[in-house]
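If you are new to this repository, start here. Below is one unmodified record pulled from the training split, so you can see the exact layout before writing a loader.
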Amino acid sequence: MSEYIEHDPGSTSAGLTEKKYFTFGSRENGLTLESGSSIGPLTIAYETLGTLSRKKDNAILVTHALSGDSHMAGCYTAKDPKPGWWDIMIGPGKGIDTDKYFVICSNVLGGCMGTSGPSSINPSTGCQYGLQFPVVTIGDMVKAQKRLIDHLGVEKLLSVIGGSIGGMQVLEWSVRYPEMLASAVPLATTTRHSALAIAFNEIGRQAIMTDPNWNKGAYYDGPKPDLGLAVARMVGHVTYLSDEAMRNKFGRRLQNRSDFSFNFDVDFQVESYLRYQGAKFVQRFDANSFLYITKAADYFDLSAQHGGGSEIEAFSRARAKFLVVSFTSDWLYPTYQSKAMVKAMKKNGLDVSFCEITAECGHDAFLLPNDRLSRLIRSFLERVARHERK
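And here is the target side for that same chain:
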């Protein structure tokens, strides 16, 4: 997930928002994880936009990708220069209309933006968890989100919507808590990582763990593994783009020079861009959270975890209406993977809509302004809402 955070000049803002916190569980009675470990107390950072209806039938959960957080849209103050990460999609009159829907977004378990993660204080030691934080899965993230939804008094979600790793959470919701979803919108995602996707994540993790400052995850009182995290971000950023997008954006143009330097300084614009992205990322993200979240994504396998190895069997649990969207230039989670999940859904007789959107910008296309995607989501939600009101 790149830094595509833009105001939409053609529409109104979702307005001011506030980060809130929900804490549950205890050391003796925490959240039981798929690994068999337990963690508690556990805090979830979340934000809401719109108003919950009297019947509590208009709630939508938005799930974020690797580097996102609970700040999905709107701003914290009137002078805040940056809106939330999906401001182009969420707000009055937008694809996810906050005049109609009560929209919830929480930071994932294992993250570093307010929800419990490796940088949180371990109540048993009084120090940051570091690698003492248990390994978590996409299923664990969804279990934690379920506790938040229960806390908010919502018995059934009108929809769960998310892209990339957020899309994995959408799929997990659809089979883990089928009775709680009227619909699900997985965007630019997969039911399990390919060897290629796992390989890129492992390169990123190795970049962090071989940084001398990583110190086996116990770096919070000293220098941080910024170099390793920056390299991990640079690798990840390449996977979020496409050959065409990089060719159009950078080509082989040089950065502030007319000829090669004949040393290892920055020569090309694309080198400068990646270094900038890496340097910016380390200012706001925790290296250990990068390890935990990418590992959770690599472990995710809907078929193995819910279908005994069969994708068809896994989706036999689902009841929701689905809108599945892929993008032509997404080589991280290519369209054939979305088509396979759609086929498995249809074999279970589920109500499924599928669209492959032509986009040259790669995996992160769902984060960029796209009228077709906005119309698709808006129309789909309106259809689901009408059906639920009957």
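Two things worth knowing about this chain: The radius of gyration is 21 Å. The mean pLDDT is 95.
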